[in-house]
Amino acid sequence: MSGTNITGYEIIKQIGSGAYSEVFHVRCRRSGKSYAAKHLIDACSDLNCDVAFPEIQLMRSVPSHPNIMHIFDYVFEKSSLTLIMDLMDMSLYDYMQTRTRPFSESRVRKMLYQIVTGLGHLHQNGIFHRDVKPENILVKITGGIVGRKEILQLADFGSAERIAKCPPLAIYIATRWYRAPECMLSLGHYGPKMDVWAVGCCFYEMLTLKPLFQGENELEMLDAIHRLLGSPTSTMLEQFRPLNLANLKFPTRKGIDFRLHLPLMNPIGLDLMKKMLIYYPDRRIGAKNLVTHVYFKEIIKHKTLSKFSMSHQSLHYVADETSLTIKASSNATRKTKHHNCPVSTTSSVVSFISNNTFHILSVDEQKRINKRKERLWNMNPASMEKQKQKFK
User: CA 330 → CA 324, 333, 340, distances in Å?
Assistant: First the structure.
């Protein structure tokens, strides 16, 4: 492939390879912009074949999102397909490999929020990934006022499937270390909650730089899961039994407290991880509730302020100012005893800066703030006058 040109694009260098694809850094000949070009190794007859369908047809039904890899273009020629996507710096796996010590929990929280937001968007649009792992989460590092910032995107949708599709689905799916129990205990009876389990495994790995569950086969994987969570009860196994003809019996494991693995972790974050790694999928937290978990409260709050402070509020007050100006202009044309007074076209709005975000406050909001200050410091004009009388 390195000796072959992609129509409309100049190949700069190869930046990755796998069992099913090769990834190149390319430059668009028309716009000059840089992209990542994922060339699928297996030949495909058309865009509806099994090789091309998941990444082209399925992802067409998902609106663009900042935390999901967007396919800008594709080149189909000589029975081969090349997808043109965002150019990111590296995978989350490679990013973790550059570390000598784990990320801070605060940093992990911000990265995790981007992952679950992208996953929630994917599930909301009827698609589940089926192979979430650090290698399939891409990272772009940017510099800012407050330092380094990571932008994360879910990528590689070659295994993606529609949530509405009735089981049984493909039996051997997802990378083993991130495979949910239901994928190993049933014959293809699983759903979007398997993605949540995989993200929970990535959550732990970002905090420790070590995979949570490791096994050479599915039996070893299940045993590793049971050592942490405890062996499933007979009642739980009965729920899996109709989906699997095998006789499900496991050695008795008591399980251990998550706190022993993560002694310094925020209790709320630990609660979130436990909910993501619940054994039975029906009891596991869903992507929709995952995004709104209290663990992300501060991120959501800051994101809301950043989003609306300069857009919604500014537009609101600009609109008010415009209406006031029009009204004042119309009044100025009338003959009144105050016709010589200048017409003000400046809105009485007070602004302030906090956490590198610019906020605009209405007059009423500023009055409420002043009243709170007066009550706090007893500095309203009436009370100050009483104090003067005492000293006299």
Answer: 10, 5, 14
Tell me the C-alpha distance between 12 and 34, whole Å.
9
Contacts of 385 (CB under 8 A, 6+ apart): none
User: How far is Cα 116 from Cα 129, in angstroms, rounded to an integer?
Assistant: 12
Q: Is 131 a catalytic residue?
A: yes
Other Cβ atoms within 10 Å of 1 Cβ, number: 15
DSSP code, position 166: P
Within 13 Å of residue 296, how many CA atoms lie on the same side as its CB?
20
CA distances from 311 to 248, 299, 301 (A): 57, 19, 16
| pLDDT tens sequence across 40-53 | 888 888 777 777 77
At residue 276, the pLDDT reads 98
Q: What is the pLDDT of residues 40-88, one digit of tens each?
A: 888 888 777 777 777 887 778 899 999 999 888 999 888 888 999 999 9
Structural contact between residues 286 and 126, judged by C-beta atoms closer than 8 angstroms? no
Q: Residue 375 gets which letter from DSSP?
A: H
SS3 318: helix
Judged by DSSP in three states, 367 sits in helix
Give the span between the Cα atoms of 214 and 264, in whole angstroms: 23
The pTM (predicted TM-score) of the whole model is: 0.76
- Phi and psi of 141, rounded to 5°? -100, 125
Q: How many CB atoms lie within 10 A of CB 383?
A: 12
Which residue bears the tokens 């865009």? 47
- Active-site residue (options: 86, 131, 156, 195): 131
Q: What does the radius of gyration of the chain's CA atoms come to, in whole angstroms? A: 28
**Rounded to an integer, what distance in angstroms lies between the CA atom of residue 264 and that of residue 270?**
10
Q: What are the pLDDT digits (tens) for 278-310?
A: 999 999 999 999 999 999 999 998 877 665 554
Q: Tokens 């992300």 identify what position?
A: 296
How would you list the strands of the sheet with 90-91, edge to edge? 90-91, 137-144, 147-154
Dig out the tokens for 23 from the structure: 């990834």
